[in-house]
Amino acid sequence: MSQTGSNKDVSQESLPSEQATAHDGAVTTADNPFADPGLPPHQHRVQDIDERAAKRSERTIALLFVVSMLATIGFIASYVIFPIDKIVYVFPFGHVSALNFALGLTLGVALFCIGAGAVHWARTLMSDVEVADDRHPIAAEPEVKAKVLADFRQGAAESGFGRRKLIRNTMFGAMAMVPLSGVVLLRDLGPLPEDKLRHTLWGKGKLLVNQNTNEPLRPEDIPVGSLTFAKPDGLADDDHDFQKEIAKAALMIVRIEPEDIKDKRELDWSHEGIVAYSRICTHVGCPVTLYEQSTHHVLCPCHQSTFDLSDGARVIFGPAGHPLPQLRIGVNEDGYLEALGDFAEPVGPSFWERG
Amino acid sequence: MSTATDNRRKAPAGERVADWADGRLGIYSLAKANMRKIFPDHWSFMLGEVALYSFIIIILTGVYLTLFFVPSMAEVEYHGAYVPMQGVRMSEAYASTLDINFDVRGGLLIRQIHHWAALIFLASMFVHMMRVFFTGAFRKPREINWLFGFLLFVLGMFTGFTGYSLPDDLLSGTGVRFMEGAILSVPIVGTYMAMFLFGGEFPGHDVIPRFFAAHVLLLPGIMLGLLVAHLILVFYHKHTQFPGPGKTNKNVVGMPLLPVYMAKAGGFFFLVFGVIAVLSALFTINPIWALGPYRADQVSTGAQPDWYMGFSEGLIRAMPAWEFVLPGGYTLNLGVAIPLVVVFPLVLTVIAVYPFIESWVTGDKREHHILDRPRNAPTRTAIGAAWISWYLVMLLGGGNDIFAIHFDMSINAVTWFVRIAFFAVPVLVFIVTKRICLGLQRRDRDKVLHGREAGIIKRLPHGEFVEVHEPLSQEQLYTLTQHEQPKPLETGPEVDENGVRRKVPRTQKLRARLSRGWYGEGTQIPKATPEEFKEIQSGHGHH
Known about the structure:
The complex is a heterodimer of chains A (355) and B (543).
Chain A: H1 46-49, H2 51-81, E1 87-90, E2 94-97, H3 98-124, E3 131-134, H4 142-159, H5 165-177, H6 179-185, E4 204-210, E5 227-232, H7 242-249, E6 251-255, H8 264-268, E7 274-278, E8 290-292, E9 297-299, E10 306-308, E11 314-317, E12 326-327, E13 329-331, E14 337-340
Antiparallel strand pairs in A: 1-2, 4-5, 4-14, 5-6, 6-7, 7-12, 8-9, 9-10, 10-11, 13-14
Chain B: H1 13-25, H2 27-34, E1 38-39, H3 46-66, E2 75-77, E3 89-91, H4 92-102, H5 107-134, H6 143-165, H7 170-184, H8 190-198, H9 207-237, E4 251-256, H10 257-282, H11 310-318, E5 323-326, E6 330-333, H12 334-362, H13 378-398, H14 400-406, H15 411-450, E7 452-459, E8 465-470, H16 474-481, H17 506-519, H18 530-538
Helix pairs in contact in B: 3-5, 3-10, 4-5, 5-6, 5-10, 6-9, 6-12, 11-13, 13-15, 14-15
């Protein structure tokens, strides 16, 4: 048992130097009723004494292997027979793919029977006599350790590692610096953040386009109690950067009676009670989708952050840390809803530089 | 060695091949030590085997999947066999995953086996770790193997996460978005990390190919190395064994590798594979075709990660929304950062170093090859049980919406329950588990001293009814009394022999305190001594 210097204050007498086997020394049970009686005698299995039972086991095992072969043939047959799009009803699993069902079952049976056969073989026919093997201490004998330490000292001395400090230190320096090349190469994994997270496609004069119909929205398209998803004019589904842009620009529009809007700025930024908010949850970025018309609460389905759209999208429950950003909207001369600028703050989850 | 002089007797072909290999690899010496290696038998020792075999199954099926999967985020219009997605724009990753399910015969089965095996891999590693923990199998000399196993578990989680993100379906994309939000919450460098991982802003076009490289090459490569090291150490240390007659700290009792364990373990691989194949035939896992491709502005309700990531989901759902703007205009998003950047790594670290903590507290630096029965290490057992309960609370918290819907409860109430349970349940479970352990120790003591309740009621001549107690066998007596009951460490006297106050370092005081918590009063019931036993045995009938 090795003790480091810092351990010296603590007495370790509470522990014997070897674990357990407290009754190791005990010879007879008369002296110590709890002494280790040693390995119990081997109990014969029925297969060990009855050759007919052993034969039965042998046949069972062989049968299992034969079933496995048949199942493999079944697998190949299923692969050939069942068309990939055939759906069948199997109680109680419902409508399933016939091919998947047949392939999985036959493969499963083919594999399982090999396993069952092997395990049955081991349990009934192979020797089950328990054997004891000695363990040997892992730590080296003192002579071995002394030899290794001496060898190491000799090797270290021959290298001059400790004596020629100039070589040693410059080598450490070189080794420490060379990985920097690898770090530098990682630079082009991506661009610097700069102000990318602060801007979206929205800007002054951008029309609000219905996400589903791709038509620009008019105020009369937004009835009270409805929830409309919108995207900025000019963003098409097949644009190269569509995913990246919609991940920031996704918008939801609701109409609230102006007298029900509690937040003054929200009212200022709305148009006849129509308010537009970022759909990207300020928690970790899921799109907020569930709208309760009677309370004007919206709920993010991912982590249940709840925002009050009649009160500046204030967080009223859940883990989101700040309100959803509002988009200032108005109506252009043609009567279409338009943005009066980009969001005033970054959308989505907060980040260190957000402020 | 020379063939010219050896021509009289021709060795069998197998032996000649072995000779050939021995001359180059030294296989005879290797086989001498290992071919008849003894392995102890216990059902709980197969949990690690389940993990090993499911890993092999994952590799086999994974290689097959790479033959068809296209790790690309380039957008295509789908024109495959699956009618509901006809004409839908999606990434090539999602389209090729649909092809694996609907155009490649057997592709669906292999994908299902891959996913089921991954879930079982993580689950079996989890339970295997519990077995190792509760029986104290992590103690010297196996601390390093605990670390290897721990790393396998953590890397397994991340391999699982990168794997189920690859199809780029709506559910997995939502998980990736979550991860982006979590990375953004890292103070100072969060935005840089996110930009570098995604090759720009979320989602970009790089994350699937990068996850693919990590999922099929980097992570499994490291895991394979760790797995081999883990197994080599299992062989080198020789397996632990449960206490029992004839089993000591210096021997290992069981059956030889060849033939019994070859057959049992080899057969068990096929059993595991067979069960997973049947599972994949009968129960659909991760139907990526149900919700469609990922779009950043779409989401489904009831979105859940795979089970092993559920606790992180619970952490983040239960955490209050703490977000502060520091002077200078910097945002500290503790609501996300504390669960995912502080608590998660902290818990992992504690699990990793637990063997070293315990050995420091108990001052036990000896080799242990005999396992503890969990009841005989009440503090450790209680810590483990408390940890599991805490994990389950988080798992429950990760499904707070599901619970709220199915049990018709308020989501707010469920979340608040999780917040309180996060702190209260582990403490409660710790206390209860410890008491249960002590109760079991008392029962062991009773059994040793008074024998086993036979269930036979005897009427004595004077009318009293007594239950007959059968004395235990020698084997049972040994098994129930063989464990040690160490005393806690002391800091030693405050004053030395010259009457001078000794300065005891604070760490030593802390250590002695913890040691009292481990072994001190109220942590063990004194086991029956031979003297007590003899006294009771000689004084017949006063019980």
